[in-house]
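Sequence, please.
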């Protein structure tokens, strides 16, 4: 198989935008499309190799997987050894547990499905996952698992049958890619079947080349080259359409560029070819390095750390290419590993990393690395906050009040702040689960917790129209049934600036449907320093640590108080008195880990303070059990 240097140059065009995109450079907003270029190249090269071996009757599944193992695993294992050690030193227990889960998923070639599942509203930014980038390896390896078998069985029926089925498979995957976005966008992004069309586009290029249906074309080559730059730098379409645009552009370069035309000469420039050669190792190293730097330093205030990260990525990639990746690619005197030895080493390495990951998970990230008071901070798992916050609210969500009951009926309407309020209520009055009827209902804050006679679309910000399309607000049947039977109504939301001016009119409208007093829970918002910043704060200073409240939240609270609502619960007066917010409880437990929702110790600390406010005097809420 003839070596095409321009393909390595094309790899350079793929990897550099990915690096800049993950480093957060503003002008590289379309840099994520570099992965799509990689998919096309990979599909092309693998299919080209398989078709050639099929034509010469040298096709072997074992040989194919041996080459894949030599190509992928040595550099991957080398990176994982170093990164896993660094993660044990740098990551907090919950982060190390998540990393270990992703480590096992990577070894099993399922990282794409892991990250599709792991994405979470309460989770830390995904850019902080050291192995996030391995999702694309998962897509490729899942493709390599089945595609050689597809060629093996279909090729025997004729190249024309293979060609037609290839086109049909590409179309089917593309349809799946678009339709899956309507169901679950994460699956559309990470799912192997939804991404297969990009690898099949490369496979189609190899099939066209095998049939000699293409020839050098300077115009199409130039168009493809310029289109890649336009897609990455300008991102003229939606992300989904941009992918199709860049995939077609990449296919044009593969099919119609030769080393002798203008584009070919550019792509075969030695620096571009060299970066293309080390692109796999560069891809492996850049995300863990950038991720660990972000976790260790304030890269937003000092972005030069990310520049250092890019330099380190190149350094590690060069070492990996020359001493790990290239030597293992084929059997040499220096690395005389047979096929059997390659498979054995691959199995041993895989078991080793699965064992390491399993130990980290079993021991929950080894929190014993920290002092007892530091453990209170270190063991907080931000990805699990949502479960605690939501649990009690979900127990009562969209139930109906019993028709024949002498118990007090309490209706809580809101978003995750309503979930927080439910936890506070049950902490202050644990007997309410038995002595009252509690019903909760969720209305997204971004859609507005409002009951207005006019159409909500008229006052909704344009950016929220699509996201709130299915929201029923107070027309929901559960609310229309429960509001007339409620004895107390609580509205608890993350109040947004555009909602506040409509709140008084909304309460008037709700009062026409119920005789119950309507309580408005004021806003709350805490500064949210990182857990690492808090761990670096001396224990002696934590109890008295107070930080300024966020300015936007102060403005919202002021606007709410200006309305002079009759049953307004001034939550701000106890969470952030004088606009200064405590970070720890007196027992040195963290009050909030995300700045918006209470930890369990935070609920314990504020529950009785809340229901001791004057607004609750003379009610069933004013006296705690």
């Amino acid at each position: 198989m003839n070596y095409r240097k321009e393909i390595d140059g094309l790899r350079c065009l793929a990897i550099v935008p990915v690096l800049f995109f993950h480093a957060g450079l503003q002008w590289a907003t379309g840099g994520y499309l570099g992965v799509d270029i990689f998919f096309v190249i990979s599909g092309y090269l693998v299919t080209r190799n398989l078709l050639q071996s099929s034509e010469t009757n040298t096709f072997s599944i074992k040989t194919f997987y041996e080459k894949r193992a030599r190509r992928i695993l040595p550099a991957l294992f080398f990176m994982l050894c170093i990164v896993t050690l660094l993660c044990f030193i740098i990551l907090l227990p919950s982060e190390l547990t998540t990393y270990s889960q992703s480590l096992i998923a990577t070894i099993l070639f399922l990282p794409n499905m892991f990250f599709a599942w792991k994405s979470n509203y309460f989770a830390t930014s995904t850019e902080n996952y050291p192995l996030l980038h391995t999702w694309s390896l998962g897509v490729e390896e899942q493709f390599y698992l089945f595609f050689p078998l597809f060629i093996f069985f279909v090729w025997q029926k004729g190249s024309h049958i293979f060609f037609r089925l290839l086109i049909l498979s590409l179309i089917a995957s593309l349809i799946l890619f678009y339709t899956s976005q309507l169901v679950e966008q994460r699956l559309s992004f990470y799912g192997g079947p939804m991404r297969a069309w990009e690898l099949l586009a490369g496979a189609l290029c190899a099939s066209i080349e095998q049939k000699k249906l293409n020839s050098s074309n300077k115009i199409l080559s130039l168009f493809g080259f310029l289109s890649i730059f336009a897609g990455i730098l300008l991102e003229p379409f939606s992300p989904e359409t941009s992918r199709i645009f860049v995939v077609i552009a990449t296919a044009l370069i593969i099919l119609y560029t030769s080393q002798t035309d203008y584009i070919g000469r550019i792509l075969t420039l030695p620096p571009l070819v060299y970066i293309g050669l080390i692109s796999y190792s560069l891809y492996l190293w850049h995300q863990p390095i950038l991720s660990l730097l972000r976790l260790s330093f304030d890269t937003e205030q000092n972005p030069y750390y990310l520049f250092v990260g890019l330099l380190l990525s190149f350094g590690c990639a060069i070492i990996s290419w020359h001493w790990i990746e290239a030597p293992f690619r084929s059997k040499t005197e220096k690395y005389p590993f047979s096929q059997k030895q390659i498979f054995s080493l691959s199995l041993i390495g895989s078991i080793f990393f699965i064992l390491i990951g399993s130990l980290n998970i079993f021991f929950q990230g080894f929190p014993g690395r920290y002092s007892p008071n530091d453990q209170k901070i270190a063991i907080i798992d931000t990805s699990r906050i949502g479960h605690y916050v939501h649990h009690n609210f979900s127990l009562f969500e969209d139930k109906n009040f019993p028709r024949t009951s002498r118990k007090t009926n309490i209706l809580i309407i809101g978003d995750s702040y309503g979930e927080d309020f439910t936890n506070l209520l049950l902490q202050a009055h644990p007997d309410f689960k038995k002595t009252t009827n509690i019903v909760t209902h969720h209305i997204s804050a971004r859609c507005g917790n409002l009951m207005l006679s006019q159409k909500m679309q008229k006052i909704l910000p344009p950016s929220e129209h699509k996201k709130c399309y299915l929201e029923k607000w107070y027309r929901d049947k559960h609310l229309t049934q429960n509001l007339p039977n409620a004895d107390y109504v609580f509205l608890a939301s993350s109040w947004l600036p555009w909602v506040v001016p409509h709140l008084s009119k909304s309460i008037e409208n709700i009062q026409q449907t119920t005789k119950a007093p309507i309580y408005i829970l004021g806003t709350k918002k805490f500064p949210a320093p990182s857990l690492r910043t808090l761990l670096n704060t001396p224990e002696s200073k934590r109890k008295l640590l107070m930080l300024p409240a966020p300015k936007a939240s102060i403005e919202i609270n002021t606007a709410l108080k200006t309305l002079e609502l009759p049953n307004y619960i001034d939550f701000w007066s106890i969470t952030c008195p004088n606009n200064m917010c405590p970070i720890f409880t007196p027992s040195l437990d963290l009050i909030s880990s995300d700045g918006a929702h209470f930890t369990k110790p935070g609920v314990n600390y504020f529950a009785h303070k809340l229901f001791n406010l004057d607004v609750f005097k003379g009610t069933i809420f004013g006296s705690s059990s």
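The chain is about 60% helix and 5% strand.
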